[in-house]
Write a structure and sequence with these properties.
With 440 residues, the protein is an alpha+beta fold. The protein has 16 helices and 16 strands. The structure holds histidyl-adenosine monophosphate.
């Protein structure tokens, strides 16, 4: 028991709140999260993906090398700190780098066929918090690593995300109309992209005084990112810039053409967006994004692309790679906006008991029903039936099992259907079967 001094300390204690950009996901919303994650596991399994559990932090150098030092993610947004041995550690801002590290560390290239891995969990970026943008956010992501860069793999990965999103209840739309929309692009390879970037840089230098300070800085550091700009004043300049599609090498042009054929073969609607360059350095060729309505400025629910060469860059054997990550927070928001945010209430049975001999029977009944898979709420303080049934209604229980002196003496239970109040008294040992039948 707390003494008076302790109690004083409690009243004076400050109220803690989650830090900005970080939040709890309490019930009932957590039920929707569980449903979404379960659908993801089911869909990913049908495409042959296996779960990989990854660390939450890694050496900072891993992200610097893969995501790139000139990106906002590494340059401005990582939570990095020196470990006690002075190694620089970072909370993961994304997980593709970790998957590739794990692939190399476990020699997974010796496994037969493509290595297909998925992960889900929190990522950390110190961005300015707003609707759909958090500092701890969640991703469901998947990666395919192997020897083939066939565009059919890209199309299958995209198909899989769309199947998942649709199974969650978000309808497909067309650009400009409600529903989610797929945008694709090719950003070339190490043969053709550097030449294009130089062309772009030269064009940006010419238009420098029409650009804001961020874009001006990016002319040197990362000119492709200028294409991402949402600044109204820069849009006219950007529309006149050279477009990568006109500067792809033969192999990249063919790959992009085939990707589009592969999507059409799967009857997947898409829009080519030449400005889709993505904010991570490891991409080459295919990039894609899926946007959903109702999310405001942060409307990308999913981003992904091809990263052939990343495994080598991190010290592994030559390997092709493609993957995506879906922002779970944003998908949940989009589902809620679309009115698909409801999760079925989990409580099947409330056990209302009264009288000195009823509690042991209530304990037994609760255990029997739970063993049969029903969710059961068992009060431990004795209550008048009126109060207990009122609570059962507020908890949205589907059934109340009523146990009073009469029932206990007769070895029966009374089952009340909460929706319409219909009651039946049945032998206790017939209860599980009865509920299975009526609630099935
Ligand atoms: P990303 O585009 O940086 O790609 O992130 C993927 C998705 O994560 C975004 O489309 C968005 O839905 C969500 N997301 C990103 N930042 C936030 C935030 N601050 N708050 C809420 N949601 C956010 C990647 O992370 C790559 N690793 C994807 C990938 C996998 N590419 C190939 N394989």
């Amino acid at each position: 028991m707390a003494n008076d001094k302790d109690r004083g300390a409690v009243t004076e204690a400050r109220k803690f709140q989650a830090v900005p950009g970080v939040r709890d996901i309490p019930p009932p919303e957590s039920a929707l999260w569980n449903r979404v994650e379960q659908i993801a596991r089911d869909v990913l399994a049908t495409y042959g993906f296996e779960d990989i559990r990854l660390p939450i932090f890694e050496q900072t150098e891993l992200f610097a090398r893969s995501v790139g030092t000139s990106t906002d993610i590494v340059g401005k947004e990582m939570y990095s700190f020196p470990d006690r041995d002075e190694t620089s550690i970072s909370l993961r801002p994304e997980a593709t780098a970790s998957v590739v590290r794990a692939y190399i560390e476990h020699g997974m290239h010796t496994r037969p066929g493509d290595v297909k891995l998925y992960y889900m969990g929190p990522m950390f970026r110190r961005e300015r918090p707003q609707k759909g943008r958090y500092r701890q956010f969640y991703q469901i992501g998947a990666e395919v690593l192997g020897q083939s860069d066939h565009p059919g793999i890209d199309a299958d990965v995209i198909e899989m995300v769309l199947v998942f999103i649709e199974r969650c209840g978000l309808p497909a739309g067309r650009p400009g109309s409600p529903g989610h929309t797929l945008y694709i692009n090719s950003i070339g390879c190490k043969e053709c992209r550097p030449k294009y970037v130089e062309l772009l840089r030269a064009a940006l230098v010419n238009a420098k005084d029409k650009l804001g300070p961020d874009s001006q800085r990016r002319i040197e550091t990362n000119p492709l990112r200028v294409l991402d700009s949402k600044l109204e004043a820069e849009q006219a300049v950007i529309e006149d810039l050279p477009r990568i599609a006109d500067h792809l090498c033969e192999a990249c042009r063919e790959h992009f053409k085939m990707l589009q054929a592969m999507l059409s073969m799967r009857k997947i609607a898409y829009e080519v967006n030449w400005r889709l360059v993505r904010g991570l350095d490891y991409y080459m060729r295919t990039t894609f994004e899926i946007t959903a309505p109702g999310l405001g400025a942060q409307n990308a629910v999913c981003g992904g692309g091809r990263y052939d060469g990343l495994v080598e860059l991190l010290g592994g054997p030559p390997t092709k790679g493609i993957g995506f990550a879906l922002g779970t927070d944003r998908l949940i928001l989009a589902l809620q906006e679309a009115g698909k945010g409801g999760a079925a209430k989990a409580l099947d049975v409330y056990v209302a008991w009264m009288g000195p001999n009823a509690y042991p029977v209530a304990v037994r009944v609760a255990r029997t029903l739970r063993d049969a898979g029903f969710s059961v709420e068992l009060p431990h303080e004795e209550m008048k039936f009126k109060k207990a049934l009122g609570l059962a209604a507020r908890l949205e229980a589907r059934y109340a099992v009523i146990l009073g002196d009469n029932e206990v003496a007769a070895g029966t239970v009374t089952v009340k259907r909460m929706a319409d109040g219909k009651q039946e008294t049945i032998p206790e040992n017939a209860l599980t079967q009865h509920l299975t039948r009526v609630s099935g």
